[in-house]
Amino acid sequence: MLYAVPYKALALQKKEEIKVLCEKLDIDVEVIISSGDYRENDNSIICEEQYNRIAVIIYEKIFSFSGMDGTFWGRFHYLVLDEAGIIDSKERGIKADFIIERATRENIKIFALTTPYVDWREYVEKYDFAQIIEKERPVPLEQIKIQYNAQKNGILVNQENPILQNTLQDKRIPVNSIIKQIVKYAINNNMSMIVFKNNRAEVISMMVEVHKLLVEDGLFDPIESGETENIREEIAAASQCPLEDMEGIFADEQQEIEALKAMKHGMAFHSAALPIEFREFVEHNWGVNRAKFCIVFSTETLAFGMNSNADIVVIADMVKPRGGQNSFLTRNEYENYIGRAGRLGKERGYAFSVVRSKREADWKKMKEEDLIISSQFENLDNGEKVFYILNMFDDRERASVSELTKHLGRIPLRDHKVSENEVREYLRMLVKGGFIQYDAIHSQIQGDESYRLLDAGKRIKGYILSFPSYLHLHRVTDHLMSSGAGSNVEFIFRMCGTPDFLLGANHTCGHERRRDRHFYRHKIIGLARQKKYNFVFHREREEYYRSLPDEEEPRLRYTIALAMWCGGEKVGRICEQTNIPYGLLKSIGENMSYYLEIAESISKGYTNGMEMVEYIEKMRVSMYFGIPMSVLAILDRQEIHPRQRYQYKIMGRILDYFNRTSGEIDLGDYESQLRELGLKTDFEKLSEENRGILIHANKRIWEWL
Q1: Dihedral sign, CA of 512, 516, 521, 523?
Q2: C-alpha closest to that of 497 among 477, 472, 480
Q3: Cα separation of 334 and 328, whole Å?
């Protein structure tokens, strides 16, 4: 069975829930996972039969596996599409559309799970689904709107609600003070609570500000700043998150100190941008098995499908970033957010929504809308659509215009019907790109215009990017093939020019560690001048630095940050030097590894490309995990797990330290360095196999190990 989910956090929770359920039912089945964080099962998912297996996989990776391996769907009999209402989202929903279409084509039994507040008539008709609807909640959920006037700092609330009675009334207070009142009630009444805020940086800052207000009210005893070092070490040990990564999470040292104080008092924060160890620490100590935290501030990563024991949910802002701008939550999103309250044995749930007065019309529209779910495919531009069309070629590696039109016709489009002429236009673009070729013989035999996949199409199938980005990656690969590996920094700089990469990075770069852009512009240029990061630009260096256009500065910044990341620099130093927070560093590293994977596939088409494939593969893994390239050269990197990244980085530092000291290492000094970084425990846990590679570096290191 294939269990599809939209979010990484949900994938991990569903894996654990399914395992427990199978044990209770005495079912002998293996439950495996594949997400952006968990890749160790990917090879077996692609290569092995899935009998007696349940594979929990995020949407994006199912789409990718389906495109890369024509036999992928033949390994499954059932598909469960969890949180299927996300189909209405352009970011993830289109992939779900193509997953359903392909599973239908392969006669796989499909179960789609979603909130009962959306209209699925289009999908029911197109795919002949049987619909089972249950709108009654097993636990009552009280919904309370808090209307807020940002200009006057005024609020209007329902005074009959027991949580708000005699607390808010008609006071004119900021939003954080409103949240504080509800948090205070929750803590005093031994209730758990989640606060949703769809901005990664503001999730932390809101928790910090609310905690300060609670300390001022006397709910918590003040904690001296000097005590936070012990708190940091305690959390690092409990979460197994290296201290250097924790340093990169926060905007500055003061925010880290205040956040650690809040965590000591049972408050936490969560987003997809956090280190995996830290995220899972919060999930395991708040959600179903809460032990340490009763209040968590989170982006929507904990909203969709997550089981929680929250008594109270607060939506601190009814808008979320979408397509480069903020838009009001949809009915499906709203119902998922508030649906986290009143679960897992609770007697009642409470859901508060903070609504600005100027968005009152949006609130009413959302509450009253009859959301008819349909595909977002028609909202893509043609340059994006062609890669989805390419993915519709099955393992026969051939398709006709009528077949593709039929397949696309099954995808419910709101105001559009795909015609054969439109499909021909997409196919012409694919022919022009060298991905497919007109099959004259088969067209004549079948009496239907047919096309077959070329090698370039087979290699790129399963990836999604825009046409301009593909052309850019092709140019970069051509340059790499003609000039050789060359400078890592120059190669990264060229890759950072990929249009989709820059667009995605700039969308997530809404929070910088400081606001002094002028200062950091000169700091980045200073770094670029250093011998370690200097490289030949497409124009004279000094002239380039002097007249660096504003639009080029982010590209240079990302280049330096990623070069430092691949060089094994400490995360805290990277964040401090480049003004890029940990969340963005992790995000651009993962995104760049995706485009490097595409470049690697392109380079396989060259007759002399295998050396470059090896080079790009090392760069890709280094970019994703931040492992030094020197370490990757001597390690088996096929099955790297995120938790191993820190061990590999430690080995990289040992080798680097060895090289810099010409073989003379003060082991006592190095041990103290590791302890200071919070890495000594990881170092001691290195496997015998990984320790063995150090024998050749220095006998004294091995003796110490």
Answers
A1: negative
A2: 472
A3: 10
Which of 272, 203, 198 shows the shortest CA–CA distance to 8? 272
Report whether pLDDT(225) > 60. Answer: yes
Cα(571)–Cα(87) distance, rounded to whole angstroms? Answer: 36
Is 50 exceeded by the pLDDT of residue 702?
Answer: no
Nearest C-alpha neighbor of 642 from the set 594, 590, 687, 683: 590
Question: Which alpha helices (H) appear in 109-189, and where do they start and end?
Answer: 121-127, 175-188
Of residues 514, 424, 481, the one with CA closest to residue 603: 481
Q: Name the token pair of 508.
A: 């997530």
Phi, psi of 29 (to 5 degrees): -145, 145
**How many Å apart are CA 65 and CA 60, to the nearest integer?**
9
Q: Give the type of residue at 378.
A: E
DSSP at 37: S
First to last CA, the chain: 44
* Phi, psi dihedral angles at 69 (to 5 degrees): -130, 110
Strands 193-196 and 295-298: parallel
Indicate whether 484 pLDDT > 90. Answer: no
Tokens at residue 604, please? 């396989």
Q: Are strands 398-400 and 371-372 parallel, antiparallel or unpaired?
A: unpaired
> How distant, in Å, are the alpha carbons of 4, 33, 46, 175, 374 from that of 55?
8, 6, 11, 42, 27
Place of tokens 């991905």: 435
d(CA 30, CA 32) in angstroms, rounded, equals: 6
Q: Provide the 3-class DSSP secondary structure of residue 355.
A: strand
Side-chain-side CA neighbours of residue 150 (13 Å)? 8
Closest alpha carbon to 607 in 390, 462, 455, 434: 455
Secondary element (H or E) of residue 244? helix 243-247
- Residue 321's SS3 state is strand
- The CA-based diameter of the chain, rounded to the nearest angstrom, is 83
Q: How far apart are CA 293 and CA 310, in angstroms?
A: 11
Residue 672: C-alpha distances to residues 49, 459, 646, 667, 680 (Å)? 49, 48, 17, 9, 8
Q: What are the φ and ψ backbone dihedral angles of 544, each rounded to 5 degrees?
A: -65, -45
| pTM of structure | 0.83
What is the Cα–Cα distance from 589 to 476, expressed in whole angstroms?
18
Chain position carrying tokens 């495996």 = 32
- Which residue from 655, 635, 656 is spatially nearest to 645, judged by alpha carbons? 635
pLDDT of residue 177: 86
- Span 625-630, average pLDDT: 78
Percentage helix, strand, coil for the chain under 3-state DSSP, each rounded to 5 = 55, 10, 35
Helices (H), 372-466: 382-390, 401-410, 420-432, 440-446, 455-460
- Which residue would you say has higher pLDDT here, 248 or 336? 336
